[in-house]
């Protein structure tokens, strides 16, 4: 479980095909700085919204294995060496929940439709699958590439979030270009409510 508060932007240093999946190594900065204490083998790390397990640690580099499901359902399969990824270590029960509960299980992909700049602030509009939009509500929460954000407007085929300068500076959304794909995870409570309503008479 995670909070959606990104600790650092990591950089992919190596991607190797390892049928039927991929082995990906990331220069993880502070997330790996105290390994193996904070990032031991088997530890869960949220990588741009996707919960992955550490399979090797070498100084600042952490290595993960991505299976076919992860490659097919997230943006990670399309990333190459040099690409940036948002990183967050798993939540301790004693930690403050500064964002919202994020599982690291990607629900689907979105696409950046527009960036509306107002000084240092940016309002971003994203497309999303209809099923996910039904689990969103204005002023509710959504995780975009692992970042806990507050929804501004939710429409039939898109939604918006407002990004403060800090978020733009410390996450990959600052460099995301229009047309870029992102991993989406809707609010955990919204999922259960939607499921209950589906079964209601």
Q: Give the class from helix and strand content and strand pairing.
A: alpha+beta
Straight-line N-to-C gap: 33 Å
Q: Could you name the CATH class of the largest domain?
A: Mainly Beta
Which strands sit side by side, in order, in the main sheet?
1-2-5-4-3-6
What would you call the shape? Answer: globular
Q: What is the H-and-E element order?
A: EEHEEEHEEEHEEEHEH
The major pleated sheet works out as: 6 strands, antiparallel, barrel
CATH topology of the largest domain, what is it called? Answer: Elongation Factor Tu (Ef-tu), domain 3
**Cα gyration radius (Å):** 17 Å
Question: What are the main properties of this structure?
Answer:
201 residues, alpha+beta, Elongation Factor Tu (Ef-tu), domain 3, 2 domains, 6-stranded antiparallel β-barrel, 6-stranded antiparallel barrel, 5 helices, 12 strands, 42% strand
Describe the fold and architecture.
The chain has 201 residues and is of the alpha+beta class. The protein has two domains: 8-89, Elongation Factor Tu (Ef-tu), domain 3 (Beta Barrel), CATH 2.40.30.20; 108-199, Elongation Factor Tu (Ef-tu), domain 3 (Beta Barrel), CATH 2.40.30. The chain has helices at 30-33, 68-73, 130-133, 165-170, 188-199, and strands at residues 8-18, 21-27, 44-47, 50-58, 61-66, 84-89, 108-118, 121-127, 141-144, 147-154, 158-163, 181-186. The strands form two sheets. A six-stranded antiparallel barrel has the order 1-2-5-4-3-6. Strands 7-8-11-10-9-12 form a six-stranded antiparallel beta barrel. A hairpin with a 2-residue loop joins β1 (8-18) and β2. The longest helix is centred in the last third of the chain and has 12 residues, at 188-199.
């Amino acid at each position: 479980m995670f909070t959606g508060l990104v600790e650092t932007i990591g950089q992919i240093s190596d991607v190797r095909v390892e049928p039927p999946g991929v082995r990906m190594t990331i220069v993880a900065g502070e997330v790996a700085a105290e390994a193996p204490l904070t990032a031991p083998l088997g530890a869960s790390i949220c990588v741009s919204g996707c919960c992955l397990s550490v399979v090797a640690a070498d100084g600042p580099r952490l290595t993960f294995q991505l299976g076919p499901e992860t490659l097919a359902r997230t943006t990670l399969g399309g990333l190459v060496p040099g690409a940036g990824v948002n990183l967050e270590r798993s939540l301790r029960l004693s930690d403050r929940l500064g964002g919202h509960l994020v599982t690291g299980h990607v629900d689907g992909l979105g696409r950046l439709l527009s960036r509306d700049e107002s000084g240092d602030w940016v309002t971003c509009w994203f497309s999303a699958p209809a099923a996910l939009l039904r689990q969103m509500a204005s002023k509710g929460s959504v995780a975009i590439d692992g970042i806990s954000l507050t929804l501004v407007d939710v429409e039939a085929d898109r939604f918006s979030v407002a990004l403060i300068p800090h978020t733009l500076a410390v996450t990959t959304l600052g460099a995301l270009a229009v047309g870029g794909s992102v991993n989406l995870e809707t609010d955990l409570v919204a999922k259960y409510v939607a499921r209950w309503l589906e079964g209601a008479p």
